[in-house]
Amino acid sequence: MRRKLVAGNWKMNGSLAENQTRLTQLVSALKNKEAIDVAVFSTAPYLFQCKSLLAASGISWGAQDVSEHASGAFTGEISTAMLEDFACDYALVGHSERRELFHESNEVVADKFAALLKSSVLPVLCVGETLEQRESGDTMTVIIEQINAVLAKSGIAGFKKAVVAYEPVWAIGTGKTATPEQAQEVHKAIREYLAQFDADIAEALQIVYGGSVKPDNADAIFAQHDVDGALVGGASLNSNDFVKICNAAG
Ligand code: PGA
Asked: Is the pTM of this model over 0.85?
């Protein structure tokens, strides 16, 4: 049985004071939540705060991005070793906002994934199609290209120490959620695609759904066989909503 993961992607939100309140609420509300994995993704300046407030809890923390380079003249970038210094459990790679707004190619995302595999930080590989790609029937073509770039650099073994987040771009921050059936269809197709390379790795892989997950749609999404949790943006900024989503997961 795969464990479910519910992760909050805070994006460029938060402050020391706001995070303190939110993290304290989560620690108290989720203290007995042992059946699922819970994580928050803060911006880099607050990773130390996450470490301080979450280290003694069951909640993990992670970064929203990472550099593909180990060190050196890369102004503004943050390395995997720096994430290890702050005891991050996870880092997102290839979030659609990074791909779109910061022009990250499949190759750069695959390099970031590969860099994380050499560290103790687990990559959460985000994949997903735009509305235009879905409407022209290219959903799986796009996702397979995104996955193939990672397979080419890290092999199927890379997915043994990773999470995949299926996030249809048209459902992110729009209030439009994929139907549970649409999510299941893509999650199943991702698992079947990877199973051609290694059935055990594909079966064990956590594939979480992201895109306007809210307390009122979480139950139906989590009921799908191949949906192993959620990457939650907007609703993760409200502790009550995030806790409700965690409770729906187990
Ligand atoms: P959303 O964001 O829940 O606000 O749609 C999800 C994400 O971008 O990870």
From this structure: yes
Q: How far apart are CA 148 and CA 161, in angstroms?
A: 17
Ligand 1 atom at shortest distance from the alpha carbon of 213: 3
Query: What CATH number did the domain enclosing 72 receive?
Result: 3.20.20.70
167 in catalytic set: yes
Residues within 6 Å of ligand 1 by CB: 9, 167, 172-173, 210-213, 231-235
What range defines the domain where residue 138 resides? 5-249
Number of domains in the chain: 1
> What kind and span of H or E run contains 197?
none
Annotated catalytic residue 69: no
Closest-CA residue, ligand 1 atom 9, reads 233
Phi (first) and psi of residue 190, to 5 degrees:
-65, -45
Tens digit of each residue's pLDDT (9 = 90 or more) over 66-116: 999 999 999 999 999 999 999 999 999 999 999 999 999 999 999 999 999
